[in-house]
Write a structure and sequence with these properties.
Shape: elongated
Low-confidence stretches: 1-7
Order of helices and strands: HHHHEEHEHEEEEHEHEHEHEEH
Mean pLDDT: 86
Length: 296
């Protein structure tokens, strides 16, 4: 009899929800423990207590980690609301009405960070000097769902539907060579130019797909893991490469060989999680980026 009525008597608290949320976000005991500041065995015991209290399992164990059940996902969504409310309450209690503090985590690519985000944050800093930033520049898509980041700025034609987003314009690209290079487009078409490209790092990048379609026989002389590196090597006169126009047009040591390449165009999106957008620190940065980062 006790086992049948226990689930109705069990009451989840904020601490239990915090453990569940950490497990859903990370999928492993060790990673969840690191987020919570405890060891993996403590997380394991906490999950066992919650499952006993609810009278049903919340995670499917496997060698790959812990897969959340539908109930665990539903509870995690509620836990996110509690988390956001607590953070908003702490911010309100610890700061003056006109002051915004805290850390905002922004994820984007290296080109967008250096060419667009960093200059925008430089403008914002005097307005909110107590804000701090964690800037992640990488080609992988950091998850806003797991709250690995607060704001993402991505070049994509398919932003995730579960996120709040605003299109900032179009990212356009062109084929460039060094300003001092004698190369013309006809030389490239004749196969007389070395290519610099991010094939291994960005196999699905529009510039890679364009080159393989337009110049199927061209094999890059230099393969790199960053578009910023492509730009620097092109500027040194080591070859030609496709670069974002917003970044390359400010460089006097680069010269375009083509106009904007239609096949390389993609949308620039500013994204955040719907449960986070009302937090003052995130709203301030999101709003500023939406106003200042505008692509033609």
């Amino acid at each position: 009899m006790k086992s049948t009525i226990a689930p109705t008597q069990y009451r989840l608290g904020a601490a239990e929800l915090e453990v569940l949320l950490a497990m859903v976000r990370t999928g492993t005991l060790a990673a969840a423990g690191e987020r919570l500041g405890v060891d993996a065995s403590t997380v394991f015991r906490a999950i066992q207590r919650i499952e006993r209290g609810l009278g049903q399992p919340l995670f499917e164990r496997s060698r790959a980690g812990y897969r959340a059940s539908e109930l665990a996902q539903a509870l995690a969504e509620q836990a996110e609301r509690v988390e956001a409310a607590l953070e908003a309450a702490r911010t309100a209690a610890q700061t003056q009405p006109e002051q915004i503090t805290g850390t905002v985590r922004i994820s984007t690519t290296d080109t967008i960070l250096h060419g667009l985000i960093a200059p925008a944050l430089k403008q914002l800093q005097p307005q909110h000097p107590a804000l701090a930033y964690e800037l992640h520049a990488g080609n992988e898509l950091v998850s806003l769902t797991r709250r690995d980041t607060d704001i993402a700025v991505r070049a994509t034609k398919r932003p995730p539907q579960h996120l709040v987003g605003r299109q900032l314009g179009m990212v356009r690209a062109a084929l460039y060579t060094a300003a001092t290079s004698p190369l013309a487009l006809s030389d490239v078409e004749a196969g007389h130019a070395a290519w610099i490209a991010p094939d291994d790092a960005l196999p699905d990048h529009p510039s890679v797909r364009w080159r393989k379609k337009r110049f199927p026989k061209a094999q890059p002389t230099y393969r790199v893991n960053s578009l910023l590196t492509v730009m620097e090597l092109v500027a040194l006169g080591m070859g030609v490469g496709v670069l974002p126009i917003f970044l390359a047009q400010a460089r006097s040591d680069l010269r375009p060989l083509t106009g904007s390449l239609a096949d390389c165009e993609t949308e620039l999106w500013l994204l955040t999680h719907p449960e986070s957008r009302h937090l003052r620190r995130i709203a301030a940065v999101y709003g500023h980026l939406a106003e200042t980062v505008q692509m033609p």
